[in-house]
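explain this:
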Amino acid sequence: MKLVKTGLLAGALSLATAASAVAQDLVRVAEPNWASGRAMAALISTVIEDRLGGQVEIVPGGNAVIFAGMDRGKGEIDVHPDVWMPNQENFTKEYVDQNGTVALSDHGYTGFSAFCAPREFAEKHGIKSVFDLATPEAAAAMDRDGDGMG
């Protein structure tokens, strides 16, 4: 399995796998609760319906629900459209590597995670990396109510 360190892989199952599932009455495509996940679910659904002649049901859910639904093998969820790596590595280790019940596509798209901060704040507090946010100084600078939680 090829992992992208700071990226994401689209689809826990490739569209080729989804195409074989079209022989079923219905392909259930998960709809994660973030924008790119919803967009990929819509795109995959359109391909299955318009190009492959299949029927699609969109199944909203978070990662725990999506991966568990695929793991059970009862057709609850057939496709996870937007797997972010390494963010979701705990799920891929369990369901892909250990259980072997979920296949991870080798044909994803590369992306990256980032954060934004006002330039003045970042320069004042020496924030150049997400790891810089873990310093006591950065935490204190972002603490709005004195609870130490930012």
Remarks:
- Confidence is low (pLDDT under 50) at residues 1-17.
- The beta strands are 7-9, 27-31, 56-60, 83-85.
- DSSP finds six helices and four strands in the chain.
- Residues 115-150 form one domain.
